Amino acid sequence: MRDLARVGRLIAEGGARGSAQIVPEACIHDIAHNGEPHAWAAGDLASYFPGAPMRYRSQWYVHDFRVPAVFAIGIHGQYLLVDRQHGIVVAKVASQALPVDVERGLLTRNAVSQIVRVLAASSG
């Protein structure tokens, strides 16, 4: 899990680790600001996020509600959220029985939303 969180921290810090630029900032900006909402809405996974203002770009999901956040979902419950505005990273590893479990995915997203809300409020 620590490695997954480190990927999130790298994204949160604009692709840099100390003074070394690991991922070009332009790539992270592209993920966070591009992707077509209309294409997302017409896609197969939109039904898993009903009513959510979403985009998808370069293997990352982008949620444009309140504070834009990027997140990645893997099979069997893996999840990584990066809220760059507040510097928050939430990583979850799991071994759920189903590769895609819509109900558990919703529980994860709701829990992560609450965690981010509390941490963002406490940071200032």
How would you sum up this structure in a few lines?
The chain has 124 residues and is α+β, with helices and mostly antiparallel strands. It contains 4 helices and 7 strands. The chain is globular, with a radius of gyration of 14 Å.
Topology:
Blueprint: H1 2-12, E1 16-17, E2 20-21, H2 25-33, H3 37-42, E3 54-57, E4 60-63, E5 69-73, E6 79-83, E7 88-92, H4 102-123
Antiparallel strand pairs: 1-2, 3-4, 4-5, 5-6, 6-7
Defining key terms:
5-stranded antiparallel β-sheet; 39% helix; Beta-lactamase; 124 residues; two-stranded antiparallel ribbon; alpha+beta
General description of the model:
The chain starts with a helix and ends with a helix. The chain has a 5-stranded antiparallel beta sheet, with helices on both faces. Strands 1-2 form a two-stranded antiparallel ribbon. By secondary structure, the protein is of the alpha+beta class. Helices cover 39% and strands 22% of the residues. It is globular. It has a single domain (2-123), classed as DD-peptidase/beta-lactamase superfamily (Beta-lactamase, 3-Layer(aba) Sandwich). A hairpin with a 5-residue loop joins β4 (60-63) and β5 (69-73). The chain is built from 4 helices and 7 strands. It has helices at 2-12, 25-33, 37-42, 102-123; strands spanning 16-17, 20-21, 54-57, 60-63, 69-73, 79-83, 88-92. The longest helix has 22 residues, at 102-123.
